[in-house]
Amino acid sequence: MRLVQHKKEAYWFYRFLSIFYDKLVNPLFWTVPMRDVSHDLMDWSPPNLQVVDVGSGTGFNTEGIVKRVPAQQVTCLDQSPHQMAHAKKKAELQGCTFLLGDAENLPFEDNTFDRYVSAGSIEYWPNPDQGIQESIRVIKPGGQALMIGPLEPKHPLGRWLANTWMLFPTEAEYLKWYEDAGFENIKISYIRPHWFGGESEYGLALLGTKPLDYTPPVKHVPSQSPPPEKMGIGRSLLLIWRVLLGSLAGFGFIPAALFGYVKAAILGREGADLERLNRHQILALCLIILLIAGLIISIL
Ligand SMILES: C[S@@+](CC[C@H](N)C(=O)[O-])C[C@H]1O[C@@H](n2cnc3c(N)ncnc32)[C@H](O)[C@@H]1O
After folding, report:
1. Residue 27 Cα, ligand 1 centroid: separation in angstroms?
2. Model's pTM, two decimal places?
3. Which of 9, 132, 166, 221 has the fewest CB within 10 Å, making it most exposed?
4. In this structure, which residue's CA is closest to atom 13 in ligand 1?
5. In angstroms, what is the span from residue 57 Cα to ligand 1's centroid?
6. Alpha helices, DSSP H only, in 18-138?
C-alpha cells in the first residue's frame, strides 16, 4: 500500500511529525553511531568539498556532515518547510544554504557538487530510481553519493506495517538503482540502533562513485516543475485517509523501539547505556504502558 510514499502525503505527514521528530522519533531509529558508520564510508579528505544533503529534514544528518566539512560548503534541500524550520534554528548549521525542493527533480545544474548525501528520505520518494539518477547527475565526475535508508523487515508483522507505511526497499533494489544510474565502486555498510536485536538487517548506507567518463543513461531533460496536482474533494479525503492510516502504521514502530530499548538495557546489551531514553521517550513509554494496561483491564 505504501500510503505515505507520495509527495503530498509525505508533506502532510511531516507537517505534524516535525513537531516531535527530534525529541521523540528520530533518536530511536537513527542514532549518532549509525550516522558515523554511514559517513565513514565516504572520502571526506579532499579540500573544499561542496556537499548537498537531500531530504535534510531537521538537520540530524547535516549535523554529522558539518563535523567533516565547514557548514558554508553544505547545501540542505527538503520539500518540507516545517522540517527545515527546525534545521535553520540549529547553531551548528548556521552557514549552510537551505533550499526547498524535490529530491526527484533537483534544482541544480549537472556536475555541481563533490558529495551527495541523503539519509532516511528515499522511503518517501514515489520514484526512487529517478531520485538516484538525480544524485549522480548533480555530482561531478569522480564525486561520491551516499544513500542511507531502511531495509525491508523480515518479520511478517514488521514487513506488513512497513509496507503499509512507505517504501522499505530490499538490498537488491538499492543495488540495482545504483548500478542502473551508472555508479561504480559501490560499497555498503549495514546499520542498526543498539536496541534492534532482529536477525535481519535494519538499514544500510550505500556509497557509489560517479565514473570519470560518465555518460548519462538517458539524456537529462532540464528540470521543470510538474503541473500542480488537482486537489478536489475526493483527492483531499483520500489524502487525509492515507496520511492518517500511514501514520498509524508508522507509529506502530515507536512502541516496538521503546520496548526494544528497555529490553536491551535489561540484557545489558552493548551500547544500551550510551543512548539513554530522553524524557519525551520515557513519557511516551509510560503512556503506551498505561494504554495497554487499560485495554487489558477493559477486556477482563
Ligand atoms: C526521516 S526524515 C530524514 C531527515 C534527515 N535526513 C535526518 O537525517 O534526520 C525524511 C525527510 O525527507 C523529506 N522528503 C520526503 N520526500 C521528499 C522529496 N521528494 N524531496 C525532498 N525531501 C523529501 C521529508 O520532508 C523529511 O524531512
Report:
1. 15
2. 0.93
3. 221
4. 55
5. 5
6. 26-29, 32-40, 60-65, 81-88, 128-138
Element housing 132 (H / E)? helix 128-138
Residues 70-94: what's their mean pLDDT? 98
- Contact between 242 and 3 under an 8 Å Cβ cutoff? The reply is yes
CB neighbour list of residue 99: distance below 8 Å, 6 or more residues apart: 75, 76, 77, 107
Residue 41's pLDDT is: 98
Whether 165 is in the pocket of ligand 1, judged by its Cβ within 6 Å, is no
**Fold topology of 7-209:** Rossmann fold (3.40.50)
Pairwise CA distance, residues 87 & 91, whole Å: 9
Average pLDDT over residues 121-133: 96
Is the shortest distance between the CB of 146 and ligand 1 below 6 Å?
A: no
Specify the DSSP element, H or E, that contains 78: strand 74-78
**Atom 16 of ligand 1, residue of closest alpha carbon:** 124
Residue 9 is placed in which grid cell? Answer: 502525503
Give the pLDDT of residue 222.
Answer: 47
Whether residue 148 contacts residue 203, with contact meaning beta carbons closer than 8 Å, is answered with yes
pLDDT of residue 104: 97
Q: Residue 52 C-alpha to ligand 1 middle, in angstroms?
A: 13
Q: Please give the single-letter amino acid code of residue 201.
A: E
Return all residues near 115 (Cβ < 8 A) that are at least 6 apart.
Answer: 42, 44, 49, 50, 51, 52, 69, 139, 143, 144, 145, 146
The full set of domain ranges for the chain reads 7-209
CB 81 within 8 A of CB 56: no
Which residues are 207's β-sheet partners?
146, 187
The best mutation among 121, 147, 191, 247 to test binding of ligand 1, ranked by most ligand atoms within 8 Å of the C-beta, falls on 121
| DSSP structure class, residue 22 | I
Query: Mean pLDDT throughout 99-112?
Result: 98
Residue 56 CA to ligand 1 centre (angstroms): 6
Ligand 1: does its nearest atom lie under 6 Å from the Cβ of 78?
yes
